Structure formats: structure tokens, C-alpha cells
Amino acid sequence: MSQPTARKHTALPKARILIEALPWLTRHHGKTVVIKFGGNAMVDEELKAAFAQDVVFLRHAGLRPVVVHGGGPQISAQLDRHGLVSEFKAGLRVTTDEAMDVVRMVLAGQVQRELVGLLNRHGPLAVGMTGEDAHLMSATKHFAEIDGERVDIGRVGQITEIDTGAVQALLDDGRIPVVSSIARSADDGHVYNVNADTAAAALAAALGAETLMVLTDVEGLYADWPNSDEVISRLTASELEKLLPDLASGMVPKMEGCLYAVRNGVTTARVIDGRVQHSILLEIFTDEGIGTMVLPDPDNDSNKNEGADR
Ligand SMILES: Nc1ncnc2c1ncn2[C@@H]1O[C@H](COP(=O)(O)OP(=O)(O)O)[C@@H](O)[C@H]1O
Ligand SMILES: CC(=O)N[C@@H](CCC(=O)OP(=O)(O)O)C(=O)O
Asked: Where in the chain is the site Transition state stabilizer (predicted)?
């Protein structure tokens, strides 16, 4: 006779955990969240599977998650197999026409397919697309700026327009769009390689997303990288803007993207450690968060549309 009572008690902590999440879930019900999964965080099979579980959890909890994925290391490995060297300028890959074919093949044919497969283990949810599909992302050629000089870095694109129609239709249908950061050229028949952080931020702003979450291979934005591992836990758009000139490598497009997002209607942009299992749920369900949170300036009306160059 005592068994049912004992079972009830064992389940009580689980019930409490679910109820603790209730205020967050109520606040975010129906909201769009754009999650950028960086190539450097996609290193381990268990981590990738846990990432997919978190995204599916958000979807079943009533949010509208959109995944934008990277794949920098995977592209570099494939270029290497083709005997092509990888060179980055201002955090962006110098992309020859030959390299562009490899970029497209790896992002759309390999990395995106793998994520779609992992998400669809949980049901008919994920649909992969690139920025080429249904005019999702149009771009023109982007020139890097190095020491005040305009530098040609090949087929790297700067997003000029986003048509969110197809993504919204998928979200309305209960699907999880998984987007590769390749854009169609607005002026010739080519395609462009767009940094995935930049693409995620632009898409988050265009969708009017509540949150942009960027998963990477560090704990967050370090105050004095590489000399110290002190993570900046939260900062405003203006504070971030002051730090931008001192940032290096992959953090440049990431933080420019966060700045653009919060200055164009996204409520928070977060950089979190994708090497930690279930980092998305940890970020959501811990009050202080686990990474770096960028917030709009208290009165951000004057900042509208002054974000990063794109
Ligand atoms: N201030 C900083 N804080 C954290 N990481 C930084 C900083 N400046 C440069 N980095 C570098 O940026 C990298 C993250 O960018 P990137 O390699 O492009 O990751 P992803 O593949 O996730 O987009 C980190 O691994 C680190 O080496
Ligand atoms: C122009 C440019 O640099 N494009 C990136 C696109 C992939 C990407 O951004 O991947 P991560 O998020 O893993 O860095 C590249 O070719 O590596």
C-alpha cells in the first residue's frame, strides 16, 4: 500500500524543477529565439546530441527556435583535403571561387544535414535551408577593412536583404528551420560566403526575435583575452561598442553581430559555452546565466539601425 506514496515522493523534485521553469516558459511562450551553433562547439557527438535535445525541448515548450549553424573548422579541414589553404582576414575567410564550392558543399551538404538529422531523431521537426532558398538572404560583395584599407577577400558577402517568409512559414507549421550562412547574390548569379554569426544576428533582427544565442568554444566574452579568463557576464550595447576595436579573430563578427541584434530590436544577445552539455537550458534556467549577455542601452531609440556594417 505504501508504494504509490513513495513513488509520488521520488517524483516531487522533478515536479519542482518543472514548476521553477514556469515563469520563464510563460514569459517566452510563442517567442522566437535564434540559436547560432558554432563550428568550434560542434566537436563532440554527445554535445551535438544534447544541443539537439535542448532545441527540441524549447520547441515543445512553446518557443519558436531557429538554428543558424557555422562550420569554420569543418570547411578548413575539407579545403585542406583539396590542397587549398585557409586564410582569414579581419575574422573572415578569404574565399576564392574554388573555395566557395567547398564552403557551400560543407555547410549545406554536411554540417546542416547532420544537425537536421540529429533534430529529426525527435520527430519530423527540422527543415534545412540556406540563405539561397526562397530569397532568405541576399548579399553583395563585402570588403574587409584592415588598418583603414579596403581589402578584397573574394566571395564573402554582406547581407543586404532578408526575406523571412519561408522561415516564418516553417515556424508557423511547428518546424525548426536550420539555416546555412550562404547568401544569393543580389546582382549576379553567384553565391556568397557569409560569416555565420553575422547571418544569425541579421536573421534574429529580421525575425524580431526575442533572443539571439551564440554557442561557441569559450565561456563567453573575456574581459582581457588571452591574458585572463574573467568573463564579462553582462554589458550594454554602448559598453560593447567601446570594446569592439580591441577584440580579435572569431570574436569580432560574433560581438558585432550581438551589437547589431540588440540595436535592431532583439531583447538580449548571449554568448555561451557550447562545450558545456545542455548549455542552452543552463543559460535559460539559471538566473545569472552562464555566459555573456548583451542588452540594449536603457533608452535605445537613438541607437536604432546604427549597428554593424551589413
Ligand atoms: N575577448 C575574447 N573573448 C573570448 N574569445 C575570444 C576573444 N577574443 C578572441 N577570442 C577567440 O574567439 C574564438 C571564438 O570564435 P570562433 O573561433 O570563430 O568560434 P565559432 O566557431 O564558435 O564561431 C575563441 O575560441 C577565442 O580564441
Ligand atoms: C566569411 C566567413 O568567414 N564564413 C565562414 C562561414 C562558416 C562560419 O562562420 O563558421 P563558424 O561559426 O564555425 O566560425 C567560414 O568560411 O568559415
From this structure: 36, 254
Binding-site residue positions: 71-72, 93, 193
Write out the residue range of the structural domain in which residue 94 sits.
Answer: 27-303
Per the domain annotation, does 264 fall within a domain?
Answer: yes
In a domain, 5, yes or no: no
The grid coordinates listed for 74 are 569543418
Does a structural domain hold residue 288? yes
For residue range 228-273, list pLDDT tens digits in order.
Answer: 889 999 999 999 999 998 888 789 899 999 999 999 999 999 999 9
For the segment 265-276, what is each residue's pLDDT rounded down to a tens digit? 999 999 999 999
> Which ligand approaches the C-alpha of residue 141 most closely?
2
Ligand 2 pocket at CB < 6 A? 38-40, 70-72, 75, 92-93, 103, 156, 181, 193, 195-197, 250
Q: Which ligand has its closest atom nearest to the C-alpha of 182? A: 2
Counting from 1 in the atom list of ligand 2, the atom nearest the Cα of 181 is: 6
Please tell me the residue having the least CA distance from ligand 2 atom 5: 195
Kindly report the CATH number assigned to the domain that includes residue 100: 3.40.1160.10
- pLDDT, one tens digit per residue, over 103-126 is 999 999 999 999 999 999 999 999
**Partners of residue 184 on adjacent β-strands:** 138, 191
| Residues 6+ away with beta carbon under 8 Å from 66 | 32, 33, 34, 35, 167, 171, 176, 177, 179, 203, 207, 209
Residue 131 CB partners (closer than 8 Å, separation 6+): 137, 138, 139, 159, 179, 180, 181, 182, 183, 184, 194, 199
Compute the distance from residue 10 Cα to the ligand 2 centre, in Å. 46
pTM given for the model: 0.92
Cell 539571439 belongs to which residue? 212
Ligand 2 center to residue 79 CA distance, Å?
13
| 123 found inside a domain | yes
Q: Which residue's alpha carbon is at the smallest distance from atom 4 of ligand 2? A: 195
The domain tally of the chain equals 1
